[in-house]
Design a protein that fits this description.
By secondary structure, the protein is an all-alpha fold. It is built from 24 helices and 2 strands. Strands 1-2 form a two-stranded antiparallel sheet.
Length: 548
């Protein structure tokens, strides 16, 4: 039975009492709506496969896709030109297909029952197109239209494969993940995905829970610990980079901290024989400022102790040199002076009271004042001296982090490194840290956010529940594990191997520039292109069905 054209002019009909067509017992014309939805539900998986196939053809055969789009576009233009043109039949056939599918009730029922996802995609395309035009309106109307457009694109089933391919070609790697990888830190799969919003965090939490399962969790646990140790090495390399050194191969922990200290000291000692110190008023002013700056945090006893240390180590030695008729202080004597200041400062910084730590920070600033005087006294050595000073400033942050409660052989955790960065910030009320501009904070904050642990330590209820979902237990014994879960976990452990983890991280985060541009364009223009490019294929299928 031929369908009724809903858009054809209708003859006036005599008014009749209205009847609710949705009421129980209401007669239905043609295929009942119940059968329509039932068939649509059954055909949805097959329609989804067909849509994916159409999308794949569009991507894999760009030449044919471009040709089809040209035929359709030119055919639509040719319809406006008198006489028959070559591509008119393509545009006419596409128009007829839409008329058959959407201008009659029976045509719509038949098409929706056969290809429900395609109908949803068409509706989303129509809404998206209209909203795109309305989005150009000013004010709230334009914003509302833009929201409708985005919602329509999200609802379009075609967006699933498009988004998947777009994200693979152009992964949106967070800036903090990039910072870590640039410094030689290779996060695990869970940590990389967890740094992004959305479902990626679930992967990270699941990986943490898997780490609690004996045997199966050994690999991800080792991978996450490896990333944390690499962060220690990255921080040490930050301190040694100014003098052209690195800490690669040094075991994180106390050995690493000592290595950085000794390497910087050796570089300073190398420079010492060729430099001298010329005391000036600026040196005195800087020392006085350092003492006043931290005075409010000291007790009377600690303030007296600070005055005594500065007098014995700095003032008396400068006075002795002046009384001996020396116009300059030799580098070796400066080295002794600075070494004493740094040693006492480090001891006090590890103290248990705020007053002790304040004296330690004041002495650290006095040591910095000595270094600045050396730069003024030896302008031809400024570059080398500044390199040592920059390295030392970074070292102080590592030392601060390493003094936090932790077993030395484990190295600093990301949280401890960040705490060290904050403690070493000498700005008023930690202002630079609060603004995110403190020295080494880009590295410490990236480690704190990406290499974090969202689940409490092993043995807690959260970890136990997650572990049970993954087929294991965190109770210290290995329970029955589903063979499929065990097989998947066993295969997955290879991604945490020392030399594979870095490759996996790069695979997840990096693509050639050209590939990224294609992926970005696909995500931006993919829906529009895909909807148009699918039309010839849908037309071909529709014609084949008519001739069956």
């Amino acid at each position: 039975m031929a369908g009724k054209n809903l858009f054809a002019p209708q003859k006036p009909q005599p008014s009749q009492p209205g009847r609710n067509l949705f009421a129980p017992g209401a007669p239905e014309v043609g295929m009942p709506w119940g059968d329509v939805f039932s068939q649509a539900f059954e055909n949805a998986p097959e329609d989804g496969k067909l849509m994916v196939k159409e999308f794949a053809t569009m991507v894999m055969e760009p030449g044919q896709t471009a040709k089809s789009l040209w035929q359709l576009a030119s055919g639509m233009v040719q319809l406006l030109i008198p006489g028959k043109q070559d591509n008119e039949k393509v545009a006419q056939a596409v128009g007829k297909m839409f008329m058959d599918h959407y201008t009659t009730v029976e045509g719509f029922k038949k098409h929706f029952a056969k290809r429900p996802l395609s109908v949803i995609s068409d509706a989303a395309g129509l809404i998206s197109g209209g909203a795109t035009l309305l989005a150009k309106l000013p004010g709230k109307a334009g914003k509302a239209a833009a929201f409708v457009r985005k919602s329509a694109d999200v609802a379009d089933p075609m967006m699933l494969p498009i988004n998947a391919v777009s994200k693979v070609m152009n992964p949106r790697t967070g800036a903090k993940v990039k910072t870590l990888m640039k410094e030689g830190v290779n996060p695990t799969i869970g940590q990389i995905l967890g740094a992004s919003r959305g479902a990626g965090r679930i992967v990270d939490v699941a990986e943490q829970a898997l780490s609690s399962i004996p045997v199966l969790g050994a690999a991800p646990k080792a991978g996450r610990r490896r990333a944390a140790l690499q962060l220690n090495t990255a921080a040490a390399n930050r301190a040694l980079a100014p003098i052209g050194k690195n800490a690669d191969g040094i075991t994180p922990g106390a050995d690493l901290v000592a290595y950085v200290h000794d390497t910087l000291s050796a570089e300073f000692n190398r420079i010492l024989p060729s430099i001298v110190m010329k005391p000036d008023m600026q040196l005195i002013d800087n020392i006085v400022t350092a003492i006043k700056k931290h005075g409010s945090e000291m007790t009377e006893m600690s303030r007296t102790h600070l005055d005594h240390v500065v007098k014995e180590i700095v003032s008396n030695r400068l006075l002795e040199a002046k009384q001996a008729g020396a116009k300059v202080i030799p580098g070796k004597l400066v080295q002794i002076m600075k070494s004493d200041l740094d040693r006492i400062s480090a001891d006090l910084m590890a103290g248990t009271t705020q007053a002790e730590r304040s004296v330690g920070r004041a002495l650290e600033d006095v040591s910095s004042a000595v270094m600045k005087n050396l730069e003024r006294s030896n302008p031809y050595k400024v570059k080398e001296l500044k390199a040592v000073q920059e390295g030392w400033a970074n070292y102080v942050r590592i030392r601060e982090g390493s003094t936090r409660p932790n077993a030395p052989e484990l190295g600093m955790s990301p949280v401890q490194l960040d705490a060290g960065v904050k403690a070493a910030d000498r700005s008023m009320r930690k202002a630079r840290y609060g603004e995110g501009r403190s020295l080494m904070q880009d590295l410490s904050s990236a480690g704190k956010e990406v290499l974090k642990s969202d689940l409490p330590s092993s043995g807690t209820t959260d970890r136990a529940l997650w572990a049970s979902l993954l087929g294991g237990s965190s109770a210290g014994v290995v329970p029955f594990i589903d063979p499929l879960v065990g097989l998947g976990a066993t295969v997955g452990t290879a991604t945490y191997a020392p030399y594979i983890q870095g490759g996996v991280a790069r695979l997840l985060t990096s693509r050639p520039g050209a590939v990224r541009k294609v992926g970005s364009g696909l995500g931006k223009y993919g829906p529009t292109v895909a909807r148009a490019a699918r039309l010839p294929g849908r037309l071909k299928q529709s014609l084949e069905e008519e001739h069956r």
